[in-house]
Amino acid sequence: MNAEALIRILGSEFYAGVPDSQLKSLCNALMHRYGIDVHHHVIAANEGNATALAAGYHLATGKVPVVYMQNSGIGNIVNPVASLLNDQVYAIPCIFVVGWRGEPGVHDEPQHIFQGQVTVKLLEDMGISTFILSKDTEEKELAAQLEAWKTLLDEGKNVAIVVRKGALTYDGKVEYSNGNAMMREEIIRCITDVSGEDVIVSTTGKASRELFEIREANGQSHRLDFLTVGSMGHSSSIALVIAAQKPGTRVWCIDGDGAALMHMGAMAVIGANKPKNFIHVVINNAAHETVGGMPTVMGQIDLAGVAKACGYEKVYSVAEREALVKALEQARSEEKLAMIEVKAKIGSRADLGRPTTTPQENREAFMAYLAQQK
How far is Cα 374 from Cα 362, in angstroms, rounded to an integer? Predict the structure, then answer.
């Protein structure tokens, strides 16, 4: 189904969500139609944030909003769905459009397998009626489902369209770019050059894939790295406690702007604890580049200022290779909690692969290395 047809059938004038590769056609169509406009389309910090934005829209207008997301974001909507939208609380109607990663019987990455198995059940357990959108779903079928859902929505209940792989298309072209010079892979290579035998915790998406391939190309062991292939936004929290438990070991976190934004409160916890052996590198291309390049608000935020306010002792913001290397070396030489924001270009190699080790193998090798550290 064409994404423009989906938008027409949904009939909503307000969309909020977190981009997903499986919903790229919808995201691009929304960007083409609205861009970023708080009246019609907001790319949220996380899926719970998107749900709250949707609630505000309904309270202000009485109309039905749409929240879009990957199914990995269902966990982030549980609280606002159960304690805000639910018809036993405020009875706020909402249509969810959910990209179905890890659908049973469809090959996908390890972090999506279990989430895919429980996606429909989780939604239905929250009282959300579901409809599966497939490649062969006709427009009239979806329109009939929306009409059938009208009574539920009028009663303040929630519904969800679960989108299978390849179910949506879009013919329009949307280009995402910025004026930055360094590619993320170049930035990560600089980090591995400087970090030596230090521990690295990397965020979900292409950052972890690039770190893995850099180690392969260098003939290095993967035991130094924990690849947080799922759980977007939580790599810095993982790294914080590793640093606390291993005070004699330097711990780096390679984060992305979308991931750091998703659970930005983690920065306050890190800053309050001030581990002296922790270097937090946020690669900021102001985009959800791994899932298509749609923008984040991180291009409009003083991230260095946020880090300082949270209690990071040394803060750097760089945009060129020479300045990056200098900041990495200086941060490593000091015994202070550091944040390094690196402004990056949008994009990656077309032939970028994926880790060839399993998450369990990664965990075992990483823990064995950590066991030797102080």
Answer: 20
